[in-house]
Amino acid sequence: MKLYVDREYASPWAMAVFVGLREKGLGFDVEVLDLAAGDQRQAGFARQSLTQRVPTLVDGDFSLSESTAILEYLDDTQAGPDLLPREPRQRARARQLQAWLRSDLGALRAERSTEVVFYRPTDKPLTAAGQAAASKLIAAATQLLDGRDYLFGTWSVADVDLAVMLNRLILNGDPVPDALKQYAARQWQRPSVQAWVQLERPPL
Amino acid sequence: MKLYVDREYASPWAMAVFVGLREKGLGFDVEVLDLAAGDQRQAGFARQSLTQRVPTLVDGDFSLSESTAILEYLDDTQAGPDLLPREPRQRARARQLQAWLRSDLGALRAERSTEVVFYRPTDKPLTAAGQAAASKLIAAATQLLDGRDYLFGTWSVADVDLAVMLNRLILNGDPVPDALKQYAARQWQRPSVQAWVQLERPPL
Ligand SMILES: [Ca+2]
Ligand SMILES: [Ca+2]
Ligand SMILES: [Ca+2]
Ligand SMILES: [Ca+2]
């Protein structure tokens, strides 16, 4: 298999698929696209990704974009540990979290980009909108985790998504409750996550 | 079951779940929230929706937000026709389309809000960004449909999502190829879709 990602290895959604492939124990090649240079609009890639976005997985003659679709596809077609919980209500909760983190909290994602997580912190304070999104995230994460080590009893890829979102604040020194800091730090030590974190990145 | 939606019945994601419940033949009550008045932040609803968003489905003691998670939950737990294709690669493509329509084409969604679809057209021309998003949508829809009546051989809820997105342009009189106009018009006549379209809406 082949996985297309951004050349800065900063896309949290590319990271989720990279981690999922490693957790499944699958071999894959990583291909990087220079999104700032428009690589995703070049014909060779656009033929494989209808939506011209990363991550895109190529599995033989089948190529697929959108991280949530790719992760479900891996669970549906590949052996190895489940990436999402199997019990229907837990799986539903995991999907809810994935969808929410990809479509809400826009101010937080803009003001604490993943450059904060994978390159360096920023001095800029959060705006009121950014602070409101941070508060919503912290409240939801606290309620969902409810003191557990993982969102759903054992590890799932939703833990990676949540840890990255929390680390936008934590790794920047913004205030986050200790229990969530400890949760994110534990997630960060997972070997599949460290394999992404430790990738050699080009200067910005 | 109970489904929370916006009081204008203008959320395309609430519509997708409403249509899915009807296609499954499930009985449900509709509850409307006045999002402009902040109903979604009231304690009663916030307890049921961690993310304070519509649509939210309440199924006994279980409540769930995010339309894609709800639709998968219905397929996982309820009898009746499938809302998404069962074959893994087709299901993956349907999920890709759902995820893409919910997270890309922002300029088109902003400049051709669903008020255009459910209330009235607008005179404002598309900006360059809006036109680029429209062109990307038209190219993807043409390639995905490839002359077929449905995206995946038989109806799926992804056809509703795609028809709504196309109707942001079509019902406003913006240029769209005839084949896509005919596809959207066919989808629009489906009884589950008409049940949503014909709901009595409050003035804006
Ligand atoms: Ca390049
Ligand atoms: Ca507890
Ligand atoms: Ca009200
Ligand atoms: Ca053909």
From TrEMBL, chains A, B:
Which of the seven top EC classes does this enzyme belong to? transferase
EC numbers for this chain: 2.5.1.18
The record's listing under InterPro entries reads: Glutathione-S-Trfase_C_sf, Glutathione_S-Trfase, Glutathione_S-Trfase_N, GST_4_C, Thioredoxin-like_sf
GO MF, one term, reads: glutathione transferase activity
Q: Which domain of life is it from?
A: Bacteria
Which NCBIfam families does the entry link to?
Answer: PRK15113.1 (NF011693)
Protein name (Swiss-Prot/TrEMBL)? Glutathione transferase
